[in-house]
Amino acid sequence: MLAIQIVYQQSLSVPICRHAEALDQIVTQLNVPKRVWKNQPGYASSLSTLYNKAMTDEREFDVVIAGGGMVGVSLARLLSDLGSSPRPRKIALIDRIAFDPDKAPLFARPQRYDPRVSALTLASKALFSKLGIWRHISEMRQCPYEEMRVWDAEGTGSVRFQANAVHQPDLGSIVENSVISSALYKGLTEQNNLTYLAPFNLAAVQRDEYGNPQIVSEDGSSICAKLLVAADGANSKIRQLASFATREWDYGHDAIVTTVQTEKAHQATAWQRFMPTGPLAFLPLGGDEEQRHCSIVWSVLTSEAERLMCLPEAQFNEALERAFESKLGRIECSDERFRVPLRQRHATEYFRDGIVLVGDAAHTIHPLAGQGVNLGFLDVIVLSEELHAGLKAGRRVNDKRILERYQCRRKPHNLQMMWAMEGFKHLFAGRTPATVWLRNFGLTQVDGFGPLKNLIARHALGME
Questions:
Q1: What is the pLDDT of residues 161-172, one digit of tens each?
Q2: Which of 113, 366, 421, 435 would give a disulfide with 430, using CB separation of 3.0 to 4.6 Å?
């Protein structure tokens, strides 16, 4: 899919540009159409496309983005016109694994669902519309949800959010992560300032003669960047190598994720039940006319997670149905289960010495509100805005003032969301009569006071 400066990297030390030129000459002499030369040096076989030869020998870039996940690729797309006059700045996207869209569960036979999903807010959907990829996501598979129902397991308190109350067609969309990634990579086809290097197994971050980050791979080859962006996830290797300090702690909970088929339709509704042991969410999935498939995220104590993971499918389904109070009838079947330890983490600073953190590399929060990846998308939107504005003002991409503005705009908002989620967690974990009464009273009051409920909804959706 990438008609850009892509390198399918066997080894960065190989002069692959010369191989590609030879292949092009052969194609011309034979008078046959150019096609994909899979498994040849210089061609991104995993992405099934030709690459642009112009920059395959490049080792110096203005911006290197480490991490080919949803947040990293979104930033690469946003920087497609960075410093377009007199020339676009050179961007590299590196990842330890080359993305292969053919491995997405959507394209499997028989079709499956990806257990990893994201609850995209309206702000995130607006980003993808701006990038021109939302139509690709819609053509593949997504489920807009029109309602969200939240209730307390130890009382009668509940709140119901509705899209029509905030004058929107929906409250957001549940989309499989592999669908988002497939659309993002497809959207890179016309980006002429990007070099894609994968697999690139990061070994070290050093400094070149000018003091800029030098990113070294395990095979000993390296590239240099004026600005290195760490978008390599919660266990960011760059954050660790660059010795960024963090505040973090384990929740003592694990999230069990899987896909289930229910007896009743999900009604284009996101469901969330708060229990003392943790929240349970049923998120509606698309691609099913009967609306009977949901992605579930069940947060439980680590010891309970171990027990649930060992249960046969039928017993697990029964336990899940009880925990969900049979809101959607029987759990008829469930997919393979995955278990994710939950940990709160926040970097005390988002940048230093030409390295900047975005997404989960900078912050991870409890998944109870589904805000994690949306915060990451907001990070890259702001970083892109500040880089564009800084270059227009004549500054360098690694200018401290640019990165300070990014940190000042994002850090308070991320902290606010993190502490709000932490407060919700402790509020719903409390079991004293006073705490139970307080949260049930609060839920009931919020549900009955439209303006407050709609204000909460607008903030959660990224509309405020």
A1: 888 877 889 999
A2: 435
Distance (Å) of CA 45 to CA 35, 99, 335: 11, 10, 31
Query: Which residue has tokens 């590239």?
Result: 223
**Two tokens at 458?**
């607008």
Per-residue b/e over 271-308, b at no fewer than 16 CB within 10 Å? Answer: bbbbbebbbbbbbbbbebeebbbbbbbbbbeeebbeeb
> What one-letter code names the amino acid at 400?
K
- 27, pLDDT greater than 50: no
Cα distance between residue 160 and residue 145, in whole Å: 13
Query: Residues 6 or more apart from 19 whose CB is under 8 A from it?
Result: 40, 41, 42
- Per DSSP, the residues of 77-106 read HHTTTTTTTTSPPPEEEE-SS---GGGSGG
* Tally of residues, the chain: 464
- Residue-range domains of the chain with CATH: 5-101+183-247+345-413 (3.50.50.60)
Query: Is 33's pLDDT higher than 60?
Result: no
Is residue 230 within 8 Å of residue 67, measured between CB atoms?
yes
| Predicted local confidence at residue 430, as pLDDT | 57
Specify the pLDDT at position 296: 96
How many Å apart are CA 141 and CA 176, to the nearest integer? 8
**Measured distance CA(192)–CA(80) in Å, rounded:** 7
Residues whose CB is less than 8 angstroms from the CB of residue 459 and which lie 6 or more positions away in sequence, other chains included: none
Share above pLDDT 70 across residues of the chain, in percent, rounded to a whole number: 76
Q: At CA 192, angle to CA 189 and CA 198, rounded to 5?
A: 70
Instruction: Identify the DSSP state of 187.
Output: T
Calpha distance 77→384 (Å, rounded): 10
Angle at the Cα of 95 (from 94 to 101), degrees rounded to 5? 115
Q: How far apart are CA 294 and CA 218, in angstroms?
A: 40
Q: What are the tokens at 329? A: 């009838």
Rounded-to-integer distance, Cα 189 and Cα 334, Å:
37
- Asked if 265 contacts 290 with a C-beta cutoff of 8 angstroms, the reply is yes
Tokens standing for 296? 């579930």
Listed in order, strand segments (DSSP E) in 208-307 are: 213-217, 222-230, 246-262, 269-275, 278-284, 293-301
Residue 63, strand partner residues: 91, 227
What pLDDT score was predicted for residue 443?
61
- pLDDT one-digit tens code per residue, 379-396: 999 999 999 999 999 999
Within 13 Å, how many C-alpha atoms sit on residue 357's CB side?
Answer: 33
Q: pTM of the predicted model, to two decimals?
A: 0.83
